[in-house]
Amino acid sequence: MKKIGFLLLLTVVLFTACKTPQDIAYLQDVRANEPIMVQGDGNIRFLPGDKLSIYVHSRDQQLMDLFNLSQGTGNVTTNNNGGMYAYTVDPEGNIDFPVLGAVHVQGLTRVEVAQTIKQRLVGENLCKDPVITVTFYEMKFSVLGNAGAGVKEITKDKITLLEAIAMASDLQIDGLRKNVLVLRQEGNQQVPYRVDLTSAESVYKSPVYYIRQNDVIYVEPNDKYKRSSTVMSNDAFRPSFWMSLASFLTTMALIFVK
């Protein structure tokens, strides 16, 4: 009976040591062929303090030279990227564009800013055939904690939380997926949001499903990592520890069985 009891104990210990954690997989409750609604359109819209580059193309070279200055003043930052430069959105939500003067861009997407400038150029008989290109300039979000931490550049109109994590090289295996923190600046407040990446409902219905400029994503370590960081438990959760334990228990089992 003692031998049987010991073998049962050995089986339980090995199974516990080798079982796959249940909090690792993303979106565990997703059901096949069932569409999931998401929050808003997700397009990044310009805010005061943001920077954007604007390039005006026209058949008339003189007009292009007029609207695409190589130097600027006021809210314009020079840039060596193909002669384009960046406008900074002022506290009132405007940029100071050549000839046109103040152009309100706060709350607009890249496409809407391009349309606004084109309509004004054509409507004021300044250019008949303009093609406007608007790009983000030094707009970023940050990832901290148990993920591929770093500052990531925004280069397209929509970035989901999952894409943002992928851009940071994914969460580390010891990153807590059930309580990811996203900090977002809203007016004069820093607003915290919590997202459970193992739950599709939590992810897709979250207000931070789409990332905005200046968002900060923080992934805290899971409990296993926290315990392993202590002096007493530093080695208790390493793979080498469990392999050694399994080898020891197997040896003891063979001794008892004989």
Task: Record the SSE blueprint.
Blueprint lengths: L1 H17 L32 E7 L3 H7 L8 E2 L8 E3 L5 E4 L3 E4 L5 H14 L7 E6 L3 E6 L4 E4 L7 H7 L12 E7 L2 E7 L4 H5 L11 E4 L3 H6 L10 H19 L1
Parallel strand pairs: 7-11
Antiparallel strand pairs: 1-3, 1-6, 2-3, 4-5, 7-8, 9-10, 9-11
Helix pairs in contact: 1-7
- Pairing-aware structural class of the strands and helices? alpha+beta
Span of the ends, CA to CA: 14 Å
Strand order of the largest sheet: 8-7-11-9-10
Structural shape: elongated
Structure in words:
There is one protein chain. The protein is α+β, with helices and mostly antiparallel strands and 258 residues long. Helix content is 29%, strand content 21%. Strands 8-7-11-9-10 form a 5-stranded mixed β-sheet, covered by helices on one side. Helix 1 (2-18) packs antiparallel against helix 7 (239-257). The chain is elongated. The two termini are 14 Å apart.
Key features of this structure:
258 residues, alpha+beta, five-stranded mixed β-sheet, 11 strands, elongated
How would you concisely characterize the structure shown here?
With 258 residues, the chain is an alpha+beta fold.
